[in-house]
Structures are given as C-alpha cells and as structure tokens.
Amino acid sequence: SYMGRLETSDKESVHLVENEIQARIDNIFSNLERLEILSSKEPPNKRQNAKLRVDQLKYDVQHLQTALRNFQHRRYLREQQERQREELLARTFTTNDSDTTIPIDETLQFNESLQSAHRGMDELIGSGTNILQGLRDQRVTLKGTHKKILDVANMLGLSNTVMRLIEKRAFQDKFLMLGGMAVTCLVMFLVVQYLT
Questions:
Q1: Distance between CA 45 and CA 52 in Å, rounded?
Q2: What is the mean pLDDT of the chain?
Q3: Using an 8 Å Cβ cutoff, are 3 and 25 in contact?
Q4: I need a labelling partner for 174 at 20 to 30 A (CA). Which of 29, 56, 69, 153 fits?
C-alpha cells in the first residue's frame, strides 16, 4: 500500500513516504533475522519448511527494496532533468566574447617537450639494454675464463689458497656488477623523475 502511495505522492511528501517505506523494510529485515533464528529451533521435520518460508520472505522484501531503489533512481533522474531544463530555459545566451583565441602555442610547446622527454627515455632505455647485454656477455666470458683457469689450475696443481683467492675475487666481482646495475637503475629513475 505504501508503494502505491509512493507513485501518487507529490514532490513534497514523496520523501516522507520513501523514508516510511525504508523504515518498514528495515523493520522487516530485523524481524526476518529473528525468524531465521527461531526457525533453526524448530523440530527437525518442520525446520526445512520454516527455513524455506523465511527465505521466501527475504526474497520478497529484497524485491521491495529493489523496487524502492528503482523508484528513487527514476525520481532522481526526473528531478535532474527538470533542473537542467529550468537552467536551460533560464540561461541567457549572448554573442561570443572578443577573446576566442586558442592557446595553441603553449600546447604545441608542451607537446614538443613531451616528445623530447619521450625520445630521451627511449634512448636511455636503449642504452640500459645495451649495458645489460654487455654485462651478460661479460658474465659468459668470465664464466668461460673461470672454467679454463680452474682446468689449468687443476692441471698445474695450484694450491687451495690460490683457488680460494680466485673464488673470492669472483664473489667480489659479482657484488661490483650488482652495484653497477643498482646505480644504473637509480640514474634511470632520477632521469625519469626530473625529465618528465
């Protein structure tokens, strides 16, 4: 009955009817929660039927809630259209002002700056890729050299001390390579940060 009143209400009282409907829906939801608790306390042979009825009531109330929201949405759209219509009818149109220039020079300069920064970033990424490729090649070369040195050392019977020194040097070289990569990434980040 309240939903029927909602369709026929005027603009002043429609909010009151909506609030009343929402309050009743909230009350029904709270009662349904109590009903759900009570239905779980029913005897096992009646419990399933009681649960089914509570679920049906929940579905009906959710349907009412959806109908209320749809009505509110339609009313909001209608009010917005009326406001826009009133604004359009109340607006006074005049001829264009004398200042109709478009700031194209500043936009063009901004676009050129962006293009320049983009090219600089491409070059920076390309040089970073080349550096990484060079490091990979050096790593492969160093691994091959390390293997050959180990072979020669085994053949010549070098002492364990010399072998440990070589391995320590390889370990230090790995840290130097990682440090160089970190510095390169930091430089790239700073360039991106300050050039764009």
A1: 13
A2: 83
A3: no
A4: 153
- DSSP string covering 78-142: HHHHHHHHHHHHH----PPPS-----HHHHHHHHHHHHHHHHHHHHHHHHHHHHHHHHHHHHHHH
pLDDT of 48 strictly over 80: yes
Amino acid at 16: L
Label residue 83 exposed, middle or buried (CB < 10 Å: 0-12, 13-18, 19+).
exposed
Whether residue 25 contacts residue 7, with contact meaning beta carbons closer than 8 Å, is answered with: no
Residue 90, pLDDT score: 83
| Contact criterion met (CB below 8 Å) for 68 and 18 | yes
Q: Are 71 and 79 in contact (CB under 8 A)?
A: no
100's CB contacts (< 8 A; 6+ apart) are none
What is the value of pTM for the model shown? Answer: 0.42
42 by DSSP, 3-state: which? coil
Provide mean pLDDT across the span 68-80.
88
| Residue 53 parent element (H or E) | helix 44-90
Give the model's pLDDT for residue 182. Answer: 92
Q: Quick one: average pLDDT of 108-134?
A: 87
Q: Identify the band that residue 153 occupies on the pLDDT scale cut at 50, 70 and 90.
A: low
Cα 22 vs. chain centroid, distance in angstroms? 34
